[in-house]
Sequence to fold (235 residues):
Amino acid sequence: MFDILLLICLCLIAVSILACIYRIIKGTSMPDRVIALDTIGINLIAAIAIFSVLLHTRAFFEVILLIGILSFVGTIAFARFIERGVVIERKRDQ
Amino acid sequence: MKSNDVMLHTLTRVVTFIILAFSVYLFFAGHNNPGGGFIGGLMTASALLLMYLGFDMKSMKKALPFNYTSMIAVGLLIAIATGVSSMLFGYPFLTQFFEYYQIPILGETELTTALPFDLGVYLVVVAIALTIILTIAEDDA
Fold:
């Protein structure tokens, strides 16, 4: 019974990831796509958490924190690129 | 144009230390749990990369005066030295030893020679990741 509930949650997360993929493909502007990628990362965190409950294991807990960190760094890099044109600046404020 | 990234700078300063603590945890957990030198090194590299993203190349060079290419050499030397040190006692190359010791704060701890080897891997991974990223970033855009 509990497993069926978890599987339903996984299906709903998959639907939400599909909605984000639609936004990435269609996306009217560049920031829309970046935000959609960030949301996919968060949905993946939720999916891995549900998977580790489903598989009765603690081996994936590091992966949750890892995806959070990587999606944060990636989003910041994209934001820098969109706003400034470079990802790592040589010298700040000229 | 003067930029004002107070939010980014404050967030970067806090988050970098959380990521560094996580990377050290991954590095030491590698013996019995998921983790190890490779992923710990990548996490340290991503923490330093976050600092590079939040600030600029010039002030980061002042804050972290490391030469990453020589860090690769140091990591390889540590890994080779742990392999050779077992040869000095008459065992084959890269034989690993472990022993239980009483350490004041940690209590009974298993110390292995796999840890210095992992430290070598860790240094090489951090240095190579940052060398690649900074070499690409340094060309004139």
